[in-house]
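Raw record, unedited: Secreted protein with PEP-CTERM sorting signal
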Amino acid sequence: MKRFVVSLLAFLVLSFGVGMAVSGPDFVDWGVAVGLFAIAIAGEGFRFWLQRSRAKKRDSSGV
C-alpha cells in the first residue's frame, strides 16, 4: 500500500509539472494536469487490482 501512495504522489507532482509546462501565460493548465493524473490513478488502480487478483489465485490452490 505504501508503494501505491508513493507512486500516486509522484504522478501528482509530475502531472502538476506538465500542467505548468504546457500552460502558456496561465499558471497551470488544469485540464492537462487533471487528465494526466486521472490516467495515472486508473493505471495504478489496475496494477493494484491485478496484483491482488494474482495473490488470490495463488492462495486458492484447492489442496
